[in-house]
Amino acid sequence: MANEPSWDELFTPQPKASEPTQPAPVESPVEADPFAALFAGFDTGPTAVQPPAAAPDLPVQQAPPVQQPYPIQEEFPVQQAFPVQQAFPVQSAAPAQPPPPAQPAPPAPSFVPAQPAPQVVQQPFPPDWPGAPAGSAPPAAPTPAAAAQYGSPAQVPTTDPFADIFASQPGSVPADSGPAGTAQTFDGSAPLTRRELREREAQSAPGAFAEPTPALQPPVVQPQAAYPSPVAASAPPVAQSDIFRAAQAPEPPNFPFDFGVSAGGNGSGSGDASGGGYFPPGKPRKRRRLLWLKITLPVVLVLAVLGGGAAYAWLNYEDQVRELMGWQLPNDFDGSGNGVEVIVTIQSGEIGSDVASTLHNKGVTMTFDAFYDLLLEQPANVNFLPGNYALQMEMSAQSALDALLDPANKVTSKLLLTEGTTLPSALEIMAQTTGIALEEFQSAAADYAQFGLPAQAPSLEGYLFPATYELDGTETATGLLQLLVDTMFEHLDAAGVPIEQRHEILTKASIIQREAGSNQDDFYKIARVFENRIEQEINLQSDATVAYGTGNLQTVWTTDAERADASNLYNTYANPGLPIGPIGLPGDLAIDAALNPADGPWLFFVPINLATGETVFSETADEHEANVQILRDWCDASPENASYCE
């Protein structure tokens, strides 16, 4: 723009052609374009400014265009607030070239690496301008027409005519602040603050940076805000360094109103970052602390542990817990029964605990303690006579005791023998049921050869089949015994037992019947234990056989001396193999187990709960000893348990 007139010349009244023209004094030549460092390399296009209409039409020499390295991208479009009225009409010698179309600014990344400073095209300085570097090339000589128009070369404008207007704008770079064409924000140093820029402008601004006329000052251009502010306010001037810093990392939007959308806030617009609740990018949101979870989780865990412990204690120690807490359940029925008849057999030699167990197992009484405690409260010992008694289920302990002591409840029309009953007890039951003298049954049983028993049978033991027999009152002792023996042979034949094996099968079955409890599966496992021991030539070591040989028919507990007595022919500790004969009356289940033992490697077994008959099996002696200790502990657990272990 070397040949364009300045604004002062445009608005200065021109003298008439007849009057001599005096050259206008140059107050202070304008230094280099303050925006040259900022827009160096950008083609802003030549500005065609023509002389006033009164002057003769002379062609104006235009400065050569500056070649641009890359297309211009308009970052901040300039909007003119009001049209500028020209003092003199200007006729364009040639149509102005339209500026290139504005390209949308690409989104600024969060981090822009440092770019090399673009090469700045140095504008030539007039030799007489202040601040021109030494050796500067003089501008091109004006044409004669131009010289005649303006009077002298000094009057020809050689620089940007807008220098006077924008010279005092904050953020412009003075010519003496550094080498011409150097941008301070691209030299790697920290950008200047607004205060530093103002101080530098005040120090370096001569008359060339004088304040322009307010009427001719163009409006301050501001970048378009992402959110238009409803409040009209003038934006502060933007320095060159601020412009490029804004292009690299845009400032967060500054909302004039609090809309309650601040990041990390509670909905009222109060965020953790400054700026009206704005949350800087990249900063994690502050999560609400779940205080309720921290409080309730330990409580839930504690309750779960306590609940689990309480459940375990209840399942394993219900009776002790009830006794401790005073939550005792009723242990006895009310009334004289529910009308369902049941036959209860009292065998010879049984004591109060045996009767209490029988009544509870038959369902007559609710618990063992109900009847046993009642017996302990009696002023004198209660004697029970062997025999069968007709009682009812769900009777109170007192009602059951009264029924057993009443001879009217003794059954005389039916003979009932249960599995496991021994021969002496069976003879007493038969005598009590039929009314025949016990001596007659004992004498008939002593002559056991008359009943067709095998030659190796030592007695009638085991050959009477346990069952219920109808009586008509015409029975004799010998005839009744023969009926029971014949019934046993019939069941042996039905089970497929050969005649020559009757004695062996009955002996095995009687031991199984005596040792097993109420679990039917245990019958076959116990049979396997005895078979394994016989095959491996290990003594059976059955306490039931030793006790039978000693005459203790109501228990299976033995002493060390009794187990060491080899003279006891039923002692399977001291003698190998089977005893000399059966030890009780076996039923069909025991006979079948003797014929068909289960498969297994067991060599030991022991009941650990005599009330329920629970039995455990093992393969080694160490495992067996551990199980025996469990049985001892069970016996010591309560008086009720101890009654089974006497």
Question: Can you give keywords for this protein?
Answer:
mainly alpha, two-stranded antiparallel sheet, elongated, 6 strands, 646 residues
Summed up, what is this model?
This protein is mainly alpha-helical and 646 residues long. The chain is 33% helix and 4% strand.
What do these coordinates show?
The protein is mainly α and 646 residues long. The protein is 33% helix and 4% strand. The radius of gyration is 63 Å and the shape is elongated. It starts with 6 loop residues before the first helix and ends with a helix. About 25% of the residues have low confidence.
| Basic shape | elongated
| Ends distance | 130 Å
Mean pLDDT over all positions: 72
Helix content: 25-40%
Radius of gyration computed on alpha carbons = 63 Å
Secondary-structure-based class equals: mainly alpha
Total beta-strand segments: 6
Strand order of the largest sheet: 1-2
Given as residue ranges, the uncertain stretches (5+ residues, pLDDT < 50) are 17-21, 25-31, 42-49, 51-56, 74-82, 86-96, 109-114, 135-158, 168-186, 207-221, 223-236, 238-247, ...
Strand content: under 5%
Number of helices: 20
Which sequence of SSEs, written as H and E, runs from N to C? HHHHHHHEHHEHEHHEHHHHHHEEHH
Biggest sheet layout: 2 strands, antiparallel
